[in-house]
Amino acid sequence: MAAPSAAGLGRRLRAWLPRIMPVRWSRYNPSYLEPEVKKESHQKPLEELTEEQREQMELKAVRPIKAAPPSLSSSVFSDPMISKFTNMMMKSGNKVLARSLMSQTLEAIKRKQLEKYHKAPENEKETIECNPYVIFHQALKNCQPIIGLSNITKGGKTYQVPVPLTDNRKCFLAMKWLITECRENKHRRTLMPEKLSQELLLAFNNEGPVIKRKHVLHKMAEANRAYAHFRWW
Amino acid sequence: TLRLICTTTAVQRKNVGASGPEKYTEAFIKKQIEEFNLGKRHLANMMGEDPETFTQEDIDRAIAYLFPSGLFDKRARPLMKHPTEVFPEQRKIQWGEDGRPFHFLFYTGKQSYYSLMHETYEKFLNVQKHQDQLTTQDLPVQKEKRNLAGSRWLTKIELEEMLLEQVSDDDYSRFIQLLQKLVALPCADIEEKYIQKFSKELPVQLQKVVIEPLQHDERGVAFSTGEGKRKTARATAVVYDNGTGKITVNGIDILHYFPVLQDREQLLFPFQFLGRIGIHDMVCTVSGGGRSAQAGAIRLASAKALRSFVTEKEVEFMRQAGLLTVDPRVKERKKPGQEGSRRKFTWKKR
C-alpha cells in the first residue's frame, strides 16, 4: 500500500464525514487546525489548564497547523477586531488606504479625548477614557444588538421573526452599521476618520444614530414577538 | 458539488479490488507468480548479480536500464512487480457448485459490511454485559480515558480494501459512529484488540523536519539560512547572531523596501514571537510575487532559519503559531463560462 504523503496523513475523519457537500472549500486539508498567535497562551504552565485545554494541546501536537494570515501578528498592536473592521472598511482591496484611515481615526479619538481631559476639572479627570482601543471595543459592544430579525415565509406571506444572534453576527452587524452610517450621513467635506471618531465617541456614551438603530431593531423584535414560534431552529 | 482540491494519495487511489466479481482465477495468479520468480532469476543472471539476493529495487533499476523510456506518465513505463501488487486482491466466488452461497448474508448485497456491523455490535453488547456484571458485584467501573489524539480510524478506502467490497459514505459513517460508541463505554478495554484492528497510529509529533545545526562564517559569527515561499514569491534569508537588529532585503533596508507597516510587522513577527528583536541581524534576497507575498515569503524563511538558534519547545510553539507552515493559498484559476474565478457573467433574462 502506498504510504500517504505527510500533508494527507492523520485525517481525523470525524471532521470529514461527507454527508453534506460543501460549496466553499479551502486549500488546506480539513485536518489542519487554526494557529494560536498570542505568546502568553504558549507560556502558561501545565497546572493552570483545564481538561479541555489539555486535550486541545495534545491534539495540536499531532495535527498540522495552518499558516498565520498576513493580517495577524503577535505584536501588541495587532488586534483581531480592528483588523476585521479595517477589512470591512476596505474598498477594492486597497488595504493601505483602509489601514491609514483606521490609524487616523484612532489618532483623532485620542486627540479629542486628550482635549477633554486637559479641560476637565480635577475630580472628573479619572473618569475620562483616553485609550482609543478601549473606546473602540466599548463602542462596538454598545452597538451590538441582542436579538435580530429574520424573514420567514409562511403561507405566502413573509414575516419578520425575532431570532437569537451568534456573537460573530452581532459583531458584524455593529461594524456594518457604523460603516454605513459614516459613509452615508455625513457632510460632503468631512473626511472618514473625523466622522468615524465622532460616531465611536457617541456610541461609547450610548448616544448617536447607531445606538438608535439598535434600539429600533429591538423595538421591532419586541413588536413581532407574536411570530417567534415560527422559528424552527 | 464537492471539488476535492486538498486530496490525499489515499483518496486518489481507486479501490480496484472491490469493483466486481473475480476476473483472474487462482491458477492464473499462481502461474504469474512462478513466471515472475523465474524472470527475476533470469534478470539477475543477465545483470551479473546474485539471483538469491535480488531485491525489488534492483529489479526496478535493471528494467529502467534495459528498457529506457521517455514517457511522461510513470504508469505507462515498463513495469516488473510481484503479481500480488499488479493484480489486486479480489473476492473469490461466493457460491458453491450447486449455486448456494456460502455466507448467510449473501443476499443482502453487502455481506462483509453487514457481518462486520453484527460483529461490532456483538462486542458492544459484550462490554455492556461485563459492565452490568461489575455493577451487580459492586466492583468499581474502570474509567481510563483512551488517548484519542494519537490515533485515527481507518479511511473509507482502507475499509473497502479490508472488506473487499464497495462501502458507501453513509455505511462508512454508521460504522465509525458504532466504533465511537463502543470506545466511549467505560469497560471498552476488554475489546481493545478488536478496536485496534480499525485504528491507526498517528505519528506522535509532527516535528518530522530535521533542524540543521548552526554554521559559522569567517569572523566566527554563527548564522543559519532558511528558504520560504508564498504565492509566486521565493525568498532566502540568512540570520546572523550578535547583530543589532538590522534587516536588509535585496541590498536595501526594510524601511525603504517595504513602505507599508503591515509588511514590516510580518517581517518582525518571528523575532517578536521569540523575543529576539535586537539580537539577530538578517540579510535576505527575494524575487517574484507582490508586496505582501514577498513579506510572507521572507517571514517563512526567517522562521525556518531561526529554528537552529532556538530550543525544541520554542520550535513547537512557532509551529503552533503558524509560522512554519507554507501557505498553500494561490490565485484561483478562471473558469470557462464565467468572468472570473467565482464571478459569473451578468445574467440577462433575454
TrEMBL record, chain A:
Gene Ontology BP terms: translation
Pfam families reported in the protein's UniProt record: Ribosomal_S7
Keyword Phosphoprotein in annotation: no
Keywords for this protein: Mitochondrion, Ribonucleoprotein, Ribosomal protein, Transit peptide
GO annotation, cellular component aspect: mitochondrial inner membrane; mitochondrial small ribosomal subunit
SUPFAM superfamilies from the UniProt entry: Ribosomal protein S7
Top-level taxonomic group: Eukaryota
Stored Gene3D superfamilies: Ribosomal protein S7 domain
InterPro entries documented for this protein: Ribosomal_uS7, Ribosomal_uS7_dom, Ribosomal_uS7_dom_sf
Keyword DNA damage assigned: no
Ranges where the Small ribosomal subunit protein uS7 domain occurs: 68-225
Compartments where located: Mitochondrion
Family that this chain belongs to: Belongs to the universal ribosomal protein uS7 family.
PANTHER family reported for this sequence: RIBOSOMAL PROTEIN S7
Protein name (record): Small ribosomal subunit protein uS7m
Species of provenance: Loxia curvirostra
TrEMBL record, chain B:
GO MF assignments: RNA binding; structural constituent of ribosome
Region (Disordered): 328-350
Gene Ontology CC: mitochondrial inner membrane; mitochondrial small ribosomal subunit
Keyword terms, alphabetized: Mitochondrion, Ribonucleoprotein, Ribosomal protein, Transit peptide
Subcellular location as annotated: Mitochondrion
Xref: Gene3D superfamilies: 3.30.230.10
Matches recorded under InterPro entries: Ribosomal_Su5_D2-typ_SF, Ribosomal_uS9, Ribosomal_uS9_CS, Ribsml_uS5_D2-typ_fold_subgr
UniProt signal peptide: none
Pfam families to which the protein is assigned, alphabetical: Ribosomal_S9
Listed GO biological process terms: translation
Superkingdom of origin: Eukaryota
PANTHER family according to UniProt: RIBOSOMAL PROTEIN S9, SMALL RIBOSOMAL SUBUNIT PROTEIN US9M
Family: Belongs to the universal ribosomal protein uS9 family.
Protein name (Swiss-Prot/TrEMBL): Small ribosomal subunit protein uS9m
Organism: Loxia curvirostra (Red crossbill)
